[in-house]
């Protein structure tokens, strides 16, 4: 008897299941096609930038020194995750002569889609860094609160450097520095709110 009710309940789930969507219809929409084309364009440019770096035989640290940026920001530039300023463009071109003027111009005009693919967490190096930040997250938050007050560290007014040091046993150790502006939470005083109230 119980199995009979189970079959009826399962059938009801299928009867009332939400409608499915056509992936073909979604992927063929103009907006989706435009987004995919943009992603492919950025990926192709990134491949050319990294190839120029390899051909020049330079590390990210070398490039960072030549263009005057942190090594992390330099890597972000080549990966399409940061915007190249006109002032830095000539330095990057000098550092990587194989870069085309078209790619340099695109980097200057480019407004990055600053995002990340969730599958990147399957990469052990990335996951371990993520794990370290989340594991120490509450302690970091409490220390920021004690030292700065009620607020957060900005990831926009922000510098990140990756380097190494040598441990007591002579082993190489990784040093990651986050240097972000402290942003305090505000007390939301109604009189200071310049936007019209929806209650008016």
Automatic annotation (TrEMBL):
The active site is at 128, 131, 154. It holds the Pfam family Cyanate_lyase. It is an enzyme of class 4 (lyase). Its EC number is 4.2.1.104. Residues 115-188 form the Cyanate lyase C-terminal domain. Transmembrane segments: none annotated. GO terms for molecular function: cyanate hydratase activity; DNA binding. Keywords: Lyase. It catalyses: cyanate + hydrogencarbonate + 3 H(+) = NH4(+) + 2 CO2. Belongs to the cyanase family. Catalyzes the reaction of cyanate with bicarbonate to produce ammonia and carbon dioxide. This is Cyanate hydratase.
